[in-house]
Design brief:
It is a single chain. Helix content is 75%, strand content 1%. By secondary structure, it is mainly alpha-helical. It has 19 helices and 2 strands. The longest helix is centred in the C-terminal third of the chain and has 37 residues.
Length: 489
């Protein structure tokens, strides 16, 4: 009886489980930074209007830092040798540790620094740089590339980490409910927020380290023994030579804002449109906790549903690029409806319609993740195939820099709105103590950011993606040639 030949691209349980678990820390960090960083500084850190100014300035400064740092980190990873742990695992381990420490510091400002602007700045900057550098070293796409050369297997490999990311996103989105529970024994929202985040991040760090320990890298492109040094122009050259990456980057430069704008403003809108007494500034903490939980669930279920149907839908549309175009259109339409409802004066009186629009957009985002990541990895393969160089980490760094820039700009726009209206919240009680008459105008601007702007950007993204150069024939040719030439461990 002939012995069955083992499929070298087939992945085992440890690979699937390990990639899912290793993403815990990054998912917690990303969820907290996207949904709560600015809100923490303005509402819970106890530093008043200084919080919005500090957050806005920091996020913009950090992107200037990333313009230098992200290509450098990408170059470091590309030039790393394959050791006992692999090529990319050591960077994932370092990333986990740095993110735990950085997020823990950012969400637990010492009360003793409240009266020291210099001390607060130093603490927040150090914490943010630890998180930011650690986040740049977390590059799961590079791990996925080394595990298999099969695009279907890569797609399946992304499902579990995506599910983890969504579930953790729900937890972080509804974290105020947990904070309120902790606060019942502490009677200080500032301390309760810090303790909650610190416990979550420490636990996630342990889980992520266990996950990365389960993974063994397998495929690596042949290394180049050169003394080439990283230059700021490297990403510019990469964009010029790699048409697929250039097209994806430009498309995401616009379409990527749909997610970040929506969730940077979501909790602020829910808090002040649905849970606040605009005559006193008091917030119904129980209602806010309940609605933030509902909002998280309305994002969780559609994101899970979208992720579950993404691979079957890719089969219907035949290619990742066609699927990606469909979901961008779906996101743009739902955001446009959100804006229209606000203009008509309906939205602020109807949490149900608000959540329905969010659910539709979240479903599209859930569907779009896997084809979007498949395109990102395809861009890495295209660089090796077309130009004969492994610049996977640099390709990944370009997209990560773009994602972080979008998150920063979204939060900075929110911060600018808050500064403009003189936003001030008591960090102990959670009550609004600024000018109450400015809140309706603030809500209108939030919906411009959440609805109108993402709708326009989505349309621009669709137009750009019409020029994506990788056809199904080119994709198949790349897979076969790269599988034959890669070093297999």
């Amino acid at each position: 009886m002939a012995k069955k030949t083992k499929n070298p691209n087939r992945l085992g349980f440890k690979s699937y489980c390990g990639t899912a678990l290793m993403s815990f820390t990054d998912s917690f960090g990303a969820g907290l930074m996207t949904s709560w960083f600015m809100a923490y500084l303005t509402d819970y850190a106890g530093i008043g209007t200084w919080g919005a100014i500090l957050g806005t300035g920091l996020l913009l400064f950090a992107r200037l830092f990333d313009a230098v740092n992200d290509p450098l980190q990408g170059w470091i990873m590309d030039k790393a040798k394959v050791g006992k742990l692999g090529k990319y695992k050591p960077f994932i381990i370092l990333s986990i540790i740095m993110q735990v420490v950085g997020i823990g510091a950012l969400f637990f400002l010492p009360s003793g620094l409240k009266d020291s602007p210099v001390g607060i700045c130093a603490w927040v900057i150090v914490g943010y740089l630890l998180y930011d550098i650690g986040s740049s070293f977390f590059s799961p796409n590079l791990i996925y590339r080394t595990l298999t050369m099969d695009s279907t297997q890569r797609g399946k490999l992304m499902i579990a980490p995506r599910m983890v990311n969504i579930i953790i996103g729900m937890v972080t989105g509804a974290i105020i409910s947990i904070v309120n529970g902790v606060n019942a024994t502490m009677n200080n929202l500032h301390t309760a927020f810090g303790v909650t985040v610190l416990v979550m991040m420490t636990a996630s760090g342990v889980i992520s380290l266990l996950g990365i320990a389960m993974i063994k890298e397998r495929y690596h492109a042949k290394s180049e023994d050169t003394d080439e040094r990283v230059k700021l122009s490297d990403i510019v050259v990469l964009m010029k030579e790699n048409a697929a990456l250039r097209c994806s980057f430009l498309s995401n430069m616009f379409g990527g804002f749909i997610w970040t704008f929506l969730f940077a403003t979501c909790m602020y809108y829910i808090k002040w449109a649905f849970c606040a007494d605009l005559t006193t500034g008091a917030v119904d903490a129980g209602k806010f906790g309940m609605l933030s939980l509902i909002a998280s669930m309305m994002m969780l279920v559609p994101l899970l549903l979208g992720t579950a149907v993404a691979v079957p839908l890719m089969k219907v549309f035949k290619t990742p690029i066609r699927t990606f175009r469909f979901v961008i259109l779906m996101e743009a339409i739902s955001c446009g409806v959100l804006y229209l409802l606000q203009v008509l004066g309906i939205l602020a009186n109807s949490p149900v319609l608000f959540f329905v629009c969010m659910a539709v957009c979240a479903t599209a985002i859930g569907i779009g993740f896997i084809p979007g990541e498949a395109l990102n990895i395809q861009n890495m393969d295209y660089e090796i195939h077309k130009n004969g160089r492994d610049r996977s980490a640099l390709c990944n760094a370009a997209m990560k820099f773009l994602n972080k820039t979008q998150t920063a700009i979204s939060s900075s726009v929110v911060g600018a709105i808050l500064v403009a209206v003189g936003y001030i919240v008591d960090s102990t009680t959670g009550e609004y103590i600024g000018e109450l008459s400015a809140i309706p105008s603030m809500l209108n601007w939030f919906i411009v950011v959440m609805g109108l702007v993402p709708c326009i950007l989505g349309v621009i993204s669709l137009v750009i993606m019409r020029n994506y150069p990788i056809t199904p024939e080119i994709a198949e040719d790349m897979k076969n040639k790269l599988a034959a030439s890669s070093a297999h461990e």
